[in-house]
Amino acid sequence: MELALLYSGGKDSTLAALLLDSFYDVTLVTGWFGVTDDWRHAREAAEALGYGFERVELDRGVARKAVDRMHADGYPRHGIQQVHAHALERVAELDVTAVADGTRRDDRVPTVSRAQAQSLEDRHGVDYLSPLSGFGRRAIDRLVERCLEVESGPSGEIKKADYESELRTLLAEHHGPEAVETVFPDHTQTRVRGLKE
Question: Which domains does the chain have, with CATH numbers?
Answer without folding.
Answer: 2-195 (3.40.50.620)
